[in-house]
């Protein structure tokens, strides 16, 4: 029976590189985030904020047109694209280092069409983060996953839908049996989030119930996008994003009964600076 | 002649539970807030902010479509639904632990139709908070109240409309005579707010005239929603929300001539942490 | 030759009353602000913020429909009404203690129609603050002023248009000759703003060139609305608003090269508390 | 072989004048910023914020109508105009001291039509800052530059498009050969930004890779607009804007892994005050 290794603070200094003096925004990657229907616009906005505040070089948000105003009112640093304009979306995806799809995407036919198009366009040298509704769509519609560097960030119920493993049966061994077929890095979110990588299974030992509120997963997905766009070792980047997310929340929870996702995002630049290698 | 008991700080530690380590967002309840026509969008936004910042697990705001942008610009953590889409609203209500209806809803025929539909859909095991315009609608249109756990939050004029008791006759005895028929927890808002519960009548002894500004009631309604979604004893949750609202305002009023509703909301996570049991 | 008296800090304690414990939002007045066409929405938003943050009980903003989102994204405490809905506007004006008309209103025919309607509806026991574009409209279109408690807040060029007195001829004596006919309190804005009241002429001796930026006048107009809604002696309220506006700016200018209007507004609750009588 | 002189902190005190007591908003110039299509609205918003926070007297933003809400939600101090209303735009340009064109403008035919109209309307006594997409448009469509005080702010790739000099050949001598024909001040952005003026070539020696993120250029363009509107010596104003931008970023980067453009803007009033001459 395999065991998960504890994820420790060491991952931060090992991953978060001091920036080179002659770098430019292109050095830190293009991240495109896709999601946010008319009901769930906040999800893709929070994910986009996480990508920007973690230091991604250029961030574009492909979302329902009704979310354009709120996106720019909160985050003028992100570019906007209309999710119904497939031609524009394809160009943006092609030019990306990392694509995050799913936060607030929804699970209707339009969402499924968007996701299928992402899967068609994405190339094998790109990173694709599949989160939230997109995981449910993959599970429910049996969508074949594209050949690319895949990262999936299900919570336990989404993982049950995807893997067929009931929540109370989600042991490391059972999970690995499925993950070996998926050829993906899996971030299995729970109060002790596990990360399944090619180089082992890690378990987050920090975090706080003050994080138990809507939008936390969207924020983590955006951070995974931002970290993998910047840091070369993708597995490490995922692990560092997971650890940072919980560590910031723990710190805020010392004085807060609930920690809101946007409050974690706001702390990212200071946290990353304090822990760079 | 019955007397109201003073509401004291003890209610906080007795109510605000330390969160269990293995809890998740579902543990803290789904709150759906319904209101905000084209004129009064700010009211439902403030109520929704109060629900999120008090720690509710998942918050959805059903409101006029014209309020979608401002809602997400201020509060990406909330989900949005169009108040004219009754099918979607019904699904959302059914999936809720607590429904708050009324802030900024208005009193026209469309508002009445929304309220009637809420009354039809709500189930007996759910909590329904009726606030603001919704109270006026109930009074003016003689709407029969649904059988559910009812909380109503009238100010004195709204209570006059609902109970038929003129403001200067609103004594505990007279109020109880009506409340016994209503089978509801009543939060009667004044500069000494009273809370009528099955286990007695309580009177708030704190608060400040710096709170005398528009939106305070909307914020309190949202807090009642957030607290009752999280804390098992509903009466205690209502009392703790009322006390917290005034206590935060009192603290801010030490250095502010007027205290704005959104400023109370911003202090909620810190206040609740400082007073958890 | 008459001289203006210096306006001193004494006006603050003489005007800003400690709030009575049993007061409620109605005690602090209903203020309706009218302005903000599609181009100048920021002006009426800043004025509305000033009214809310100075402590007015209830604030409604009548403006172009395209400004609804930004108003509520910044200021959920204000209610919104569509400036093209004259019936609704009339009801709102009738129910107001103070009406502020002009910030960002523009000077086209639609703006003139709005202003004429305000003049028709306003009653003699109400306070009407005429600012910005509305002053230009009165001057250019020779609109007869309504019989009510009038306050006008022209800058020097607007006063030239209205009074016919060239800027370099705007002495106290010449100004008084016109003001006696107008039957209005005049706030003549310059780097040494003068206030012409029935009880004398006052000159502001504080202020800073860091205030020389767009939107300062809109903010002052909103403060005049908020102060006159709350404090019984209208002349004193106007003087206290003028003094507070400059005093806050002076304080901020100690560490800022430019002081933005919204930064003054944010300081109002603390400033007023520190100087209440 | 010519060498660039190092740009030093001395430029600040030499440029940023203490404001005269009797100045008014007109003293600090009218700046009109043009850009922001439906995809890139954040760019013109960030540029406009930079102009306002650096102290420009009056700022108008001509942009796609879909950006109106987000502009005013973030920056009520700016006025808005619809970029498709050429008549209104022409009047606004004519009344400006400084026009900034390009941030988020895009490079399609509509953008080209806007830019051509700016070039037609601008007068020889005005300052025109050409940034971002507008530089690409000039290069790709071989647009003749207008006779006015021109400032262009290309990054290295844009300068390659405009000058024909490949990035690795962009030496001071080669650059000067082209710039002599352009009759423009050139801000050539890289991690060591160079400024080519009539009075010499300067090189920025400060700055931080924490600035390597989208929107930095837009913010600098807005600052160049704000500084040149206020300070008489245009070359000095450009140099002071470039230096201030990097100096603020350096300071923030001491505690932040990434510095976001809007965070630099927020520090401008304090930074300028601390360094005024």
Radius of gyration of chain A: 17 Å
Number of helical segments of chain A? 11
The largest sheet of chain A has its strands arranged as: 1-10-9-8-7-6-5-2-3-4
CATH class of one domain in chain A reads: Alpha Beta
CATH arch. level architecture of one domain in chain A: 3-Layer(aba) Sandwich
As for the CATH topology of one domain in chain A, it is UDP-N-acetylmuramoyl-L-alanine:D-glutamate ligase
The residue fraction in helices of chain A comes out at 40-55%
Q: How would you name the CATH homologous superfamily of one domain in chain A?
A: Ribokinase
The average pLDDT of chain A is: 97
Oligomeric composition of the shown chains? homotetramer
Low-confidence stretches of chain A: none
| Main sheet summary of chain A | 10 strands, mixed
Structure classification of chain A: alpha/beta
C-alpha end-to-end distance of chain A: 34 Å
User: What shape does the CA trace of chain A take?
Assistant: globular
Strand content of chain A: 15-25%
Instruction: Report the strand count of chain A.
Output: 10
Largest interface: C-D, 36 and 41 residues
Order of helices and strands of chain A: EHEHEHEHEHEHEHHEEEHHH
């Amino acid at each position: 029976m395999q065991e998960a290794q504890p994820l420790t603070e060491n991952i931060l200094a090992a991953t978060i590189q001091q920036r080179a003096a002659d770098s430019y925004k292109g050095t830190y990657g293009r991240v495109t985030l896709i999601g946010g229907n008319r009901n769930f616009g906040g999800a893709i906005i929070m994910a986009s904020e996480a990508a920007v505040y973690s230091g991604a070089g250029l961030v574009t948000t492909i979302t329902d047109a009704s979310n354009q105003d709120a996106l720019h009112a909160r985050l003028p640093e992100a570019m906007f694209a209309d999710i119904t304009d497939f031609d524009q979306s394809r160009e943006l995806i092609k030019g990306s280092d990392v694509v995050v799809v799913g936060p607030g995407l929804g699970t209707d036919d339009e969402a499924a069409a968007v996701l299928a198009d992402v899967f068609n366009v994405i190339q094998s040298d790109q990173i694709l983060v599949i989160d939230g509704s997109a995981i449910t769509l993959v599970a429910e519609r049996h969508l074949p996953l594209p050949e690319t560097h895949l990262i999936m960030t299900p919570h336990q119920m989404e993982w049950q839908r995807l893997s067929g493993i009931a929540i109370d049966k989600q042991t490391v061994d059972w999970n690995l049996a499925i993950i070996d077929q998926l050829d993906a890095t899996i971030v299995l979110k729970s109060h002790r989030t596990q990360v399944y990588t090619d180089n082992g299974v890690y378990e987050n030992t920090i975090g706080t119930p003050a994080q138990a509120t809507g939008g936390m997963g969207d924020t983590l997905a955006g951070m995974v996008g931002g970290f993998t766009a910047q840091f070369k070792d993708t597995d490490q980047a995922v692990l560092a994003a997971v650890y940072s997310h919980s560590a910031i929340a723990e710190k805020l929870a010392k004085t807060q009964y609930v920690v809101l996702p946007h409050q974690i995002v706001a702390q990212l630049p200071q946290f990353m600076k304090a822990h760079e290698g």
